[in-house]
Amino acid sequence: MEMNRKKHGKAGWLAAAVIGAQILVLLFFAGQKKGYFIDEIYSWGLANGYYKPFVASYDVFERWISGEEFHDYMTVQEGQQFAYHSVYYNQTQDVHPPLYYMILHTICSFMPDIQSKWQGIMLNVFFYGGCLVMIFLTARTLMEDDRGAAAAMAVWGLSPGGLSTAIYIRMYMMMTFFTMVTVYLHVKMAKEGQSLKRLFLICAVTFSGLLTQYYFVFIAFFLSAVYVLWKLWKRRWKEAAVYSAALLGSVGLMAAAYPACITQLTRTDEFVANETRNNFMNGAVIARNLISYISDINMDFFSGRIRQAAAAAALTAAWCLWRRFKKGREKPKGEAGQISCCDRMAAALMLVWVLSFLAVSMAAVVTGVRYIYNLYPLLCILAVWAVRKVTGWGFGKTRALKFVQAGILALVGALYLNGFSRGYVRYLFPENEERVRLAEGYRDLYCLYIDNYENAPLTQDLMELSRFQGLYVMPEEKIEQIQEILKGKDTKDGLVVYVDTSEFWSSGYDSGEVMEKLKEETGAEGYRFLYSNVLSETYVLTMAP
User: 24 and 64: one domain?
Assistant: First the structure.
């Protein structure tokens, strides 16, 4: 008993040290974040816009506005703190469940009238740390080794993929945490037996995960399916029935708590929901997504050298198997190479991972790596488990084994460092600093935004738009009225013009045609390109003297 207590105490200190070091690395990269992806801006807006889920929910079209509307959209105003009814309403108008936004709104409610990246980052840090704990506990249960569990934490937490998950101010870090909690609880239940306490916790996590992101359903479904099939194979009919009823109950409870989920998943008038259903029948889209996600894994873990890594892994595996064959003797019970209960669980989890990965590839509308972020920790656990098994077959319990495994870990570290230097940690947007600097340089000018009543481009450019003297949003068809629109506005020093250029997400205007029309209608001397973003291009219209 005393020995076990000391062993677990050392393991706790080891885990805490690794977690602390990784959080410091995360904070270092988070400090370099200079801008936001459009969905990150939606995070604040959907959480804090008081019964106004989108920028377009404000009266922003075809009138001069100051930009204060954008600030109100992103922040909690006095008297609107802890307005969860507003958050709930906003999400019924969007395509996601509300739990993440409610938690972000809670944080922002303590800081009214303030928007800061650290509001979202610190929320992610909390779930990042929790996810590391879950990785450690799951890996230790599978490998029965504290160092292997710590290695699994480091392989995920220090990877560009793991860091990007925590830097992205969206619900995916939170979903990743719930994913690892349910994986851990299933592993413990499979190893130590089904209990009402564990069932209750699994149901609570399933409820929370589904209220965080609908993509949680894939890992939850396949994990549950494999578990139930295993129970049926063991002829434990009652346990399988109780488990199934409990899980279905948690799904039903989620639907009762947020009935809008049924509408969001079945509506035919919304782009994302409609395209998701269509993708299940589109082989070309599935192939495209698979290729894209494998490319993402390549950057997030292999620094773009997945082929070389695969070749090195194959040679190492062949070497270890050759050494195992050369020994030509039976392993004593408990040594590496013996198929144990933990090995069978690892194989089952590998099947769950592959099926979940394929399901996401079938469902994803766009090939965003964020949709597979919650699968990354389990992938890292299984990778460390596989390395330990294969090297264990080749080297047994010898000193050489530790050197080989340490060498592999050092190689992974070198790949990660190379990935850092190549900019594979995502969502930092260093280029945004230049856009903001340029926008600040024209803060005394008025701004036109040529947009066909679309929400997305305005949201993307929100951080720059609020800096100008005034903003007028209008479609291209109204350019002939520009003289009336600009009446009373001092434009002698020029006019900033944004043009919504995305054909996929919004208006899809030809910026050259728009600027030529504006030049003709205003009698301007000319125009010059200032900067661009994903959905828009920005110009400065120079007025004639």
Answer: no
Distance of CA 2 to the CA centre of its chain: 42
Look at residue 397 and tell me whether its pLDDT is greater than 80.
no
- The answer as to whether 426 is a domain residue is no
Q: For the chain, give me the number of helices (H) and strands (E)?
A: 24, 6
DSSP 61-81: BTSEE-SHHHHHHHSPPTT-T
> Quick check: 47 and 104 in contact, CB under 8 A?
yes
CA distance 93 to 46: 9
Establish if 373 belongs to a structural domain.
yes
- By the 8 A CB rule, do 211 and 264 touch? no
One domain for residues 19 and 151: yes
**Tokens at residue 289, please?**
């997504």
**Whether residues 237 and 273 fall in one domain:** yes
Q: How sure is the predictor about 335, in pLDDT bands with cuts at 50, 70 and 90?
A: very low
Contact between 450 and 498 under an 8 Å Cβ cutoff? The reply is yes
Q: Give the residue from 93, 115, 137 where a domain finishes.
A: 115
At 121, is the pLDDT very low, low, confident or very high (cuts 50, 70, 90)? very high
| Alpha carbons 254 and 258: distance in angstroms, whole number | 6
Contact by Cβ (8 Å): 74, 44: yes
Enclosing domain of residue 85: 38-115
Dihedral sign from CA coordinates of 66, 43, 440, 535: negative
Distance, CA of 362 to CA of 285 (rounded, Å): 7
Same structural domain, 85 and 133: no
3-state secondary structure of 328: coil
d(CA 153, CA 132): 6
The pLDDT value recorded for residue 348 is 96
Indicate whether this model's pTM tops 0.85: yes
pLDDT at 445 over 70: yes
pLDDT over threshold 90, residue 10: no
User: Distance between CA 506 and CA 504 in Å, rounded?
Assistant: 6
* Residues 511, 394 share a domain: no
CB-facing half-sphere around the CA of 67: CA atoms within 13 A: 16
The two three-digit tokens of residue 82, written as one number: 């802890």
Domain count, the chain: 3
Q: Are strands 536-542 and 526-532 parallel, antiparallel or unpaired?
A: antiparallel
Beta bridge partners of 500: 536
Pairing of strands 64-65, 446-450: unpaired
Same domain (yes/no): 61, 91: yes
508 and 360 in a single domain? The answer is: no
Query: What would the mean pLDDT of 46-71 be, rounded to a whole number?
Result: 95
Burial of 394 (0-12, 13-18, 19+ CB in 10 A): buried
Same domain, 300 and 378: yes
Answer with the one of 421, 451, 473 that is the final residue of a domain. 421
Say if CB 124 and CB 107 are below 8 A apart.
no
pLDDT digits (tens, 9 = 90+) for 13-49: 888 999 999 999 999 999 999 999 999 999 999 999 9
Contact status, residue 425 vs residue 369, Cβ threshold 8 Å: no
What would the two tokens of residue 174 be? 């939170």
Angle at 38 between CA 158 and CA 294, to 5 degrees: 45
